[in-house]
């Protein structure tokens, strides 16, 4: 008899479903999402000196790259790409059985909606993280040059649409081929690892008990 959870978990849909489960298990998160820059920075900032002047420039760049008014569309594109990829993979496995596809499709839609709401709500934190990354990795003069480029029509288009390039059909086709090949190349190593882990846990029963207890909690 097929192990359904193991079967689903081995496919791309497992990533989407597990993301939704994680969100569902943390209902307080969306209720406490910081909405302004100061709150968001307090929530995500890693301790360490950041030049405040560089951070000001970085925030202006990220405002062009991640404009708040485009957050919904950006998240929709990202979630759509993940969902379409998972649907294609699952349809191939189920031989396009209508009933099973509907069961999975309904759940994927529910998970996608929850993930979409959470991702949109956390965009301020993403903006802070990206701003701090720019301020940490570029000099003051480099930030000025990036901002000057970003304020041109071509620069605005580039910065605001850079993330869309991963959804380009050519890039998507390459990524699909790449991930398929990676799966083929890594499967033997993963399969050979399982008996090694089993043998190791037999030699370390206390560790095996700890793992089993953690699974049950």
What does this structure look like?
- The chain is an all-alpha fold and 217 residues long.
- The chain folds into 2 domains: 10-25 and 33-164, no CATH class; 168-217.
- The protein is 80% helix and 0% strand.
- Helix 4 packs across helix 8 (123-137) and helix 6 (71-94) runs antiparallel to helix 7 (98-121).
- The model is unreliable at 1-13 and 20-34 (pLDDT under 50).
Furnish the topology, listing elements before pairings.
Elements: H1 4-9, H2 13-24, H3 28-31, H4 37-44, H5 52-65, H6 71-94, H7 98-121, H8 123-137, H9 140-150, H10 153-161, H11 169-203, H12 205-216
Helix pairs in contact: 2-7, 4-8, 5-8, 5-9, 5-10, 6-7, 9-10
Beta-strand share of residues: under 5%
Total of helices: 12
Approximate helicity band: over 70%
- Sheet with most strands: none
Tertiary shape: extended
Mean pLDDT over the residues: 76
Name the helix and strand elements from N-terminus to C-terminus, one letter apiece.
Answer: HHHHHHHHHHHH
Distance between the termini: 26 Å
Radius of gyration from the CA trace? 22 Å
Low-confidence stretches: 1-13, 20-34
Would you tell me the structural class of the helices and strands? Answer: mainly alpha
> What is the total number of structural domains?
2
Strand count: 0
């Amino acid at each position: 008899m097929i192990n359904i959870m193991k079967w689903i978990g081995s496919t791309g849909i497992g990533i989407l479903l597990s993301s939704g489960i994680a969100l569902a298990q943390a209902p307080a998160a969306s209720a406490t999402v910081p909405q302004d820059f100061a709150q968001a920075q307090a929530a995500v900032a890693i301790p360490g000196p950041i030049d405040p002047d560089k951070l000001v420039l970085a925030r202006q760049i990220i405002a062009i790259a991640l404009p708040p008014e485009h957050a919904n569309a950006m998240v929709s594109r990202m979630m759509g790409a993940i969902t379409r990829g998972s649907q294609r993979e699952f349809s191939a496995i189920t031989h396009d059985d209508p009933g099973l596809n509907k069961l999975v499709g309904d759940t994927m839609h529910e998970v996608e909606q929850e993930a979409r709401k959470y991702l949109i709500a956390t965009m301020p934190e993403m903006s802070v993280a990206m701003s701090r990354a720019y301020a940490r990795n570029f000099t003051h003069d480099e930030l000025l040059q990036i901002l000057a480029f970003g304020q041109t029509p071509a620069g605005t288009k580039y910065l605001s649409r850079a993330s869309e390039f991963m959804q380009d059909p050519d890039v998507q086709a390459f990524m699909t081929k790449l991930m398929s090949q990676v799966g083929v190349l890594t499967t033997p190593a993963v399969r050979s690892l399982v008996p090694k882990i089993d043998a190791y846990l037999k030699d370390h029963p206390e560790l095996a008990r700890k793992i089993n207890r953690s699974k049950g909690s």
